[in-house]
Protein 1
Amino acid sequence: MFSFFRIHNFRSILDLKVNFSFAEKKAPPGFKESDIVFFSEPKKGERLVPALALYGSNASGKSNVLMAMGVFRDCAISDIGGKYQPDKLHHGNLSTIFEAGFVIGGKEFVYLLEYDRDEVLKETLKADGTLLFSIDRGRCVFGAVATASYPADRLDEIFRVECSTPQKKQTRTFLSVIGSRYPGLNSLVTSVYGYLHEDVAVFSENGIHLSRGVDRLAAVLEKMNDPDPLKTAFTKITELLESLDIHIVRMELDRRRKRLERDPHERTYLDVEPDFLKRLTSFEKEGENIILNRDRIRSFHEDVEGKEVEFDFRTEESSGTQIVAGLLGVFLAALESGGVVAIDELDRSLHPLLLIELVRLFKDRRYNGKGAQLIFTVHNTDILDANLLRVSEVGIISKTLEKGSAMSRISDFRGVSNIENFRKQYLTGSFSGIPFPYI
């Protein structure tokens, strides 16, 4: 679970910290027996919220917070190429800094990454306060990563050869190299890399294809030794979808797979016929090869006589139904693995009651027993009246030219309790973060 995420000099953000702590002084009465997840405690004494909704006016920087999380993840598990997006309205900052705290397996990690357009300037990783490694403008301290088999000089060679350019500029993170190419070297570094690579998902828009959701959930189930992860994933998603009162009786998935083998002479993949690509829904890597998936998804409704009628899910179901189906796969994958999902504009094309039920998945102990987290931007305010989110789980983003985008949670405002009408207070400007339009 994320405990905090700090952003410095990224798009409209000069300096902003997202806090995921449960900020109430006391736990709610009966919280241990409650069906509601008020907080998770992945480490003794540390209570973290399962959901965080980000509100704010248009152009306040809400999307930039989630975009920063996505860029941070991508940099951490690969490289910084093309990912430098500084604040263009303030010229004194010469680098971007991301710093994240998260708890994995009862240990608290803090990972910091600083980079500019050309190179990584600083990269550090700590576990429960112990330094695992630190790289500061090419000066390396390998801490607990160094072993008898891989002493500091050998790690320094790995850093120079695999993380840096011939001009001695670090462009690939040390975390990604050790985590992906030397997974047996240090279990803590490997767990951090695996967490960011597999369990953290950031989506810039609410438009996830059902096939992608199926694949994410199937990947989680495969690691849990499910005998038929694809079938189980599709069944879990469709059963939940059918319970949401959108009139689907049942669904079927027919998947065709095509292997693209790398041409050893041309170093490219062989051609595939255009007809197959027209209905391409997902792909996956298998060693050096790529597997293309073409799914035909059929949904069934009852006609006036009670007979089943077949629909093509991709072309004949509403965009809202398709959005919900894709979200369910991604959400269930996070809930099964204890992962993190961040989605921009979660309420797009969704009825407010459907939006509430989707968020409720992360607040319901029947589904969220592994510390999964949902982070989302939203404009719909009905969810603030649903007695679902607490003062620690609603963030307000506002922006000024001088300070850029800033964030406050409702728990930061004095005198506000969980029995208050958040919606009314927000819309009347008590927490700021609202527009003042005039035509």
Note: The chain is about 30% helix and 30% strand.
Protein 2
Amino acid sequence: MNEHELDLSEYEVQIDLAVEARELAGSPDSPIPGVWSETDKSGGIAVTRMHIQTDEGAQAIGKMKGHYVTLEVPLLRNGDTDLQDKVATTFAKEFESFLQRIGISRTASVFVVGLGNWNVTPDALGPLVVENIMVTRQFFELMPDQVSEGYRPVSAVAPGVLGTTGIESSDIVQGIVEKAKPELVIAIDALAARSLERVNTTIQIADTGIHPGSGIGNKRKGLTQDILGVPCIAIGVPTVVYASTIVNNTMDLVLQHMEKHTPNTDKLFGVFGTMEGNERLQLVKEVLEPMGHNLLVTPKEIDKFMEDTANVIASGLNAALHEAVDTDNVAAYTH
């Protein structure tokens, strides 16, 4: 490795979002062999669809081969209910298209898993979504002749975390899958972001499964098709960011602000002004981590953010999974 080349290998655990991994790999205008992507923007919502097609593409951006869809909504944290309904509708349509793209039929039975710790607010996304999922499997089991057209068998569970149950979430889910035999697993979990702007404003869908806790450096057994024996779609929302990321982003903002007032910032910032963002991030982490100060940070309004985001995802899933649910009025289908 060149002495001036930055080794990001120790930071790969933080890259939960495919769009952030793509940004780190190079300019959005520069194509990466084996990686296809497109972005549509409308009404304050940016939808990025990405398909990592080859091993070379996967290695280039550090993500597994598969399909990824990311919704970015910068104003989602503002509490605008009309925007939330619009995001839920967009999510429902994108998720429905995602299911068709990977070959999941309209009648396939689905098992929704809400990962995370309901006692820790930034980690409670999964359990909160499960509370609002339209569960129907029991009707198909007990009274199948009375189920109306347009619904499919859906079950859901929040298995807790290893620290509270003593059992790996993956083992719990695997046991249920073996018994209930769903045709698709949907796993929902909180993620870690590399940028402040994406915390509680971004939703990612991926068909590569999920590894609980990967974004904060925990090596937990994953939920993947190889482990479960059925396709596993992951839905994630970044709810935390590292303190080092906040410091680095603040440095960027200060530099940008000062450049508006003086053409020469060298005297003010010296070598800091010439460093690349990732290089600066590495330096900040080297300073903070030995002191234990590279904390995971979440917004003070996280309670409200989590409730709103969980409702958006749950109502979107309800519409995407059941044809009888009006996709254009998804907000009406959460409790």
Note: The chain is about 35% helix and 20% strand.
Protein 3
Amino acid sequence: MSYLAFEKSKLINLEQSLFKEILRTNRAGSYSSSSIVGCHTRKYHGLLVCPIPAFDMTRHVLVSSIDASIVQHEKEFNLGIRKYHASHYEPKGHKYIRELDFDIIPRKLYRVGGVILSVEEVLVAKEEQVLVRYTLLEGHSKTTLKLKPFLANRSVHELTCQNLHANTKYQKIQNGISIQMYPTLPRLSIQLSKENEFVAVPDWFRGIEYFKEEKRGYDFKEDLYVPGYFEVEIKTGESVIVSASTKEQKSGGFKLNSTKKLKAAYPVMACTIIF
């Protein structure tokens, strides 16, 4: 049984859910943090935030988030959420969340029509690496996952904007891509646990806002870079794992189907809810 759980009514109400945050840390000095529905409210939030030796170990947000979309019958449902000007949230993926529970690994359950998708995030204990596991619990038709990484590559004390200095070229690696946007930051490898198609659609998503920074009187808008998206078919009962790391991984090394094996292989240093 989970020691803490949130039901649908508390999750879809942004006036409540945006003020509850998750923080995960590890022994490498990295962390992963956001609101419980995945909408960042601070510039310190990110999916993979790592200390960088070239900057006196100052932590940098490398991967801001990964948007997952469910595709069935040529209809796409984006499960992500971000805030823009005038309290406009797009996409509005929080409305599909049905449950969030916490054991050692936090798990969100999304329901879109007849599809039920489980999403679990693990920060690897001694590596600058985060794993996100997507498991299709129910899906009565052909189902495709589209996974879109949002990259920040900046200090936790700063914000980034679209610029000509960013190197947006990527290299193909095993089941994924690697990209090094700035020479002083590490090369980032994003890989899946199975073969997939990467579709290059490079773009900057501009004007993303963090309202808690605005309330503190700090700069609160930034632009995030998206190199494209991964597209992969997923069957009922199947799991697809995404790895984001400062090192290229052997994708077979994170093909773990059971939560028990996932916990054993990738122990979490801490998981904390901040109210």
Note: The two ends are 22 Å apart (CA to CA).
Protein 4
Amino acid sequence: MKKVIIAFALIALTNGLHAQGPNEANYDEAKVPKYVLPEVLRTTSNIEVKNKTTWESVRRPELIKLFEDNIYGQMPKKYSNIKYTVSNRDANAMNGKAELKQVLIEVFNNNTSVKINLVLFVPNAAKKPVPVFLLINNRGKENTDPTRATKSEFWPAEMLIDSGYAIAAIHVTDLAPDDKEKYVNGVLQLYPDQLTADNGMKAIGAWAWGASRVMDYFETDKEIDATKVAVVGHSRGGKASLFAAAEDQRFAMCITNCSGNTGAALARRQFGERINRINASFPHWFNTNYKKYNNNENALPVDQHMLIALVAPRPLYATNASKDLWADPTGTFLSLKNAEKVYALYGKKSNLPATPPGINQPIIQSPLAYHNREGDHNLTAYDWSNFIRFANFHYKKGK
């Protein structure tokens, strides 16, 4: 009798796993609903945007506010003081190839402070100042080990140094721990009013804010070319890198790797991860207002092609991985395609094809770049090698 009960229980469990529940992710293109994207070049007062002047003076500010109010939260711009301290320096790191600088960035406001620990390697052989890639690290700190005792494809510092670029990293824990309760311990202590506002900044916004404070530092470092800073993020970090580049136009380049929902992928496709799932699993990432769009994507006044458009005319590279359907590779590519018209206002012609390129067929020589790498949800040496090619194209050829 017990065997029969167990057998029925296993059948029920199996059926439950395969049932089409209301919150089950869709991975079938045939089941993507019909949708209409909000028009990126039409203002809220229904005026068509025909030139970059109207874009910059009217539509761009509108979109920034819509993203702040409905998704990522406000981005505080003011603080009372900022201080930089080089806590460790090694002029002969990586067997003499690079200089290591560990910089403590301390930001003060509201009678408190937040400490951001920056790891920075600068190539010794390169002519100074040099361009730099800044990673918003959402994985373990060992991935950006300053001693290089631990090396990781997630942040292949030696590859970047050998290519003539500086490479830097900050960790999200310094800004807002990635925890639904502990996220308040960091940047939000400087701006406590954000915690009670429905459009208040939460963790993703705090990480983007932190990247801008690193930019403040780069502008003081004579070894760094602060006009050539690429902000990089993977997954949730890729959501933050996009928002950082949209908010802070000092970033010369944006790289968003496998960022998916509320990153580079279109929400209205309802493919892979959806808004209700991300808000349920990570309620501390986005503002309170965003919960109104759970299972209600079409009510959003924006979609992610508009966030990509906010980076224009600066180069932007978005990626996916073939086994990472959760992050919707097709939806990411379509976001880029629907942002092309804003880049066109600046005379920037996209070289993206009409349909997504094949696996491991990167589109590099374009202001909007893309690849879908074979493999899993990750940030790899393959990805970084293409980011270097992308930077070489835009920086060294003056495109």
Note: Residues 1-22 have pLDDT under 50 and may be disordered.
